Amino acid sequence: MVLTGLGYLAAADPTAYAAAAQAQCLQALEQADSMSIAVRAWFLCVREWAELHRGGRLQPDCVADPAHAGPGRKRTSEQSGIGTHQSGLAVRAPLTEAVADIPIPPPFPVRVLASQGSPVVATGTVTPNAQLTQLGWNKPLPAGTYQVCVQPPAGLRFTDKSTGLRRGWTCVVAYIAPGSQTQVTFHLTS
Fold first, then answer.
1. From CA 184, how far away is CA 175, in angstroms rounded?
2. What one-character DSSP code corresponds to residue 69?
3. Domain boundaries, given as residue ranges, for the chain
4. Of 142, 131, 171, which Cα lies nearest the Cα of 23?
5. CA 103, 148, 130 angle in degrees (round to 5)?
6. Quick one: pLDDT at residue 54?
7. Between 62 and which of 26, 42, 45, 168 could a Cys-Cys bridge form, CB atoms 3.0 to 4.6 Å apart?
């Protein structure tokens, strides 16, 4: 079913859709990417557990710790220790007068790296919302410190101070506390 839907989208002409429909499609694809990564990690963990279990070794964290329940699995506050809130990151770029001359704000790539800059722990595309008032991207991530890097669309730049981690990108440090959603806002200008 997923492959059929992706096949349909691959054959579609995005220019035939309104900007709001394009934005909704891009957001849905980002959500599907996030879920795909979570499901893949869960299956790999269970596979690792099965291999360790056969050898009589300890369970990996994702099976031994109920807080690491797989995607779609319900957790209670007693199990996770952090209630039902999942840690995550929200990247935003409000569309202000500084970019008002652009009819449809272009999406741009985002990379989330470990605090020291390697490895890349998440990637995606910051896309316009349906109202075309801001660009956004959300990603569930474990608590920790990260470098959030965005690459400006052609003809635009970010006014935010960068850590300089990646050439041609604007990077900032973000801390995600357990059970909280951290928002990082970038400011575009032409």
1. 10
2. P
3. 1-83, 88-189
4. 131
5. 30
6. 58
7. 45
92: its two tokens = 């935003």
Model confidence, pTM: 0.55
**Do strands 120-128 and 181-185 pair parallel, antiparallel, or not at all (unpaired)?**
unpaired
Ranges of residues in the chain with a pLDDT under 50 are: 57-84
Q: Are 105 and 128 in contact (CB under 8 A)?
A: yes
Taking the C-alpha atoms of residue 109 and residue 123, their distance in angstroms, rounded to an integer, is 7
For residue 140, the 8-state DSSP code is: E
Class of 88-189 in CATH:
mainly beta
With left for phi above 0 and alpha for psi between -120 and 50, is residue 127 left, alpha or beta?
A: beta
**190/180 Cα distance (integer angstroms):** 33
Token look-up 């704000």 returns 105
